[in-house]
Queue: 2 jobs
Job 1
Amino acid sequence: MTLAKVFERVTHGADVPVEFAAYDGSRAGRHGSDIRVEIRSPYAISYLVRSPGLLGLARAYVSGHIEVRGDMYTTLSTLSQTLEKISVGDRLRVLAGVLDDPLLRAAAATRLDPPSVEAPKGGKLRRHSKRRDAKAIHHHYDVSNRFYEWVLGPSMAYTCAVYPELDSSLEEAQFTKHELVARKLGLEPGMRLLDVGCGWGGMVMHAAREHRVKALGVTLSKQQAEWAQKAIAEQGLSDLAEVRYMDYRDVVESGFDAVSSIGLTEHIGQANVPGYFAFLNGKLRPGGRMLNHCITRPDNLQPSIRPDGFINRYVFPDGELEGPGYLVTEMNDNGFEIRHEENIREHYAMTLRDWCRNLDEHWDEAVSEVGPEIARVWRVYMAGCRLGFDRNMIQLHQVLGVKLPESNDAGMPLRSAWGM
């Protein structure tokens, strides 16, 4: 059986807008399509047979046994709609066809190691211990600051932006996000801000530059901290802004006027969520505000972690997503009065669109900088996440809380003061 015949069996001969080409010279699908999937080696079958579904496809792509020509988001969107229609019987018939071919049968029987960029297992370290969290953060963030500059753009903000208009640029949207957080927190000159999981210091520098706030950021990525401290010095903000290479749980200062957590909650683990909110509550003065900004699942009906999933293995080791209701409840039950909540998942789909475009525009440079496997991981990961936000498989929630003083005066305006 040619690989083209396999493709035709999978799609039931439908006119799928994808051109399929294989190393054996066979062709299928729509000739001349903007999307072209190439099977470069029979060993792609080994990954697909041993790890059915997205993980096998991802391994075959990351290792270079499968190539995708054209927009990755469009490819994933188109193929996912086709693959969702495949029945168990279809899969068995395809597998039978593969086993009938000696070359494909031999390839399927060959056990290949996962691509080398797959995250190492946590070993005996307890999940979300300080040492294991540091290893997980190092795997994802200490790739290359230059690579992140190409993907994220000048803002170096690796979190959901907020687009004031449909045609706003990524930089405008990231500025708007930081300003939205600042307004929700009610930042004013002279205040003290703690930004946990601060990344490359975008929120820290925004608070210092735009609101004259004394801001402290902490990150478990050494490369992020070094980049941020250099940027702070270059912008003349060293008297107000600081980024430290440290675990947020090791911050000793307290009495902050505000706390921002933009993209950290996904890393801490569901079991640690109550303690996380309680700890940050303890860092605030009475009347202080906290803004929690993080990716969530739409509900709490599915497991918070998928250990064998592509993202957990390649992108965010030990990452866990909770439903928004759970986060609001735990934030409320650990000392915060909830004052505002919103879901901005559409904005994250737009953010990922722009990051994907940036990577495509710098593709050759990115491959030269970090290697083809890491570049491929990022290409499929960001396109897949964009699809997830578009289809409401994942969401992005901002939750604002206040640590009430004894007077119970929250110090909040009668209506929202941010207007964004």
Job 2
Amino acid sequence: MKRIVSTFILFLFALSLHAQTNPKADPSKIAYGDNKAAGNYAKIRGMNMYYETYGEGKPLLIIHGNSGSIGDFSKQIPYFAKKYKVIVADSRDHGKTLDTLNMVDSLSYEQMSDDYAALLSHLKIDSAFVLGWSDGGINGLLLAMRHPEKVKKLAITGANLWPDTNSVEPFVLKYFDGIKKYYDKQKPSIARTVLLRHFNLLLTQPQIKPASLAKIQCPTLVMAGDQDVIKVAHTLLIAKSIPNSNLWISPNSGHGFLVLRSVDKFNVEVDEFFQRKYKKIAGRDLFQN
């Protein structure tokens, strides 16, 4: 079990390090997630939420995944900051937003989506484009459901509606359950508290009914890799359940394709979605579009 845990921690560290220091992805070598020039704290909902802003233009909120942070998007921030005002934050109990750890309440996606709505209000942003990866995609869905006025357009990748073998590859659930059981037995520490909250989140949440996605009225781009940890059939279900949705399944791709191998394609696809007018295709247009 120690070997499994070490492998997982090393994977997260390597992914974050790759995202932050790869010179091709970040030619300006900005330390995203630790940039004093762009960083600040928002005192909202009983916590200090750390966030950074980049660029000018229409606001774009980018939301990271489980055990992630702002630094995961070092390949998206410089691209989108050329034409948008990019807002990236460390979610509750993640990154530098850790002053919630002494609270007795458990972590939930609903809490986190409400946090992001409050952050936009704190920044005096009425509505924004929203991009979410993995748990960030779940937060994006809930943000559009619970605070529809805040989301102009939504793009999500690698999100799920519930955590079982119908939605997630069985290996993944077994893998994280094993790590959680390992940390259950360890001595109390901040690291243990953080990881247990994250794993509990992955293994027990969300619990979103497909029919409830009909509340999402904004245009939505639903994405995943064709070999994602989230099953393609489940991603298709999400897209079918949202009234104004587009679907993109990236070929030969896993859960992290947006930061590891298909960065340019991903950024362009999302950018084009935000820029174009959404339309329903029907009748003869089905042959021509």
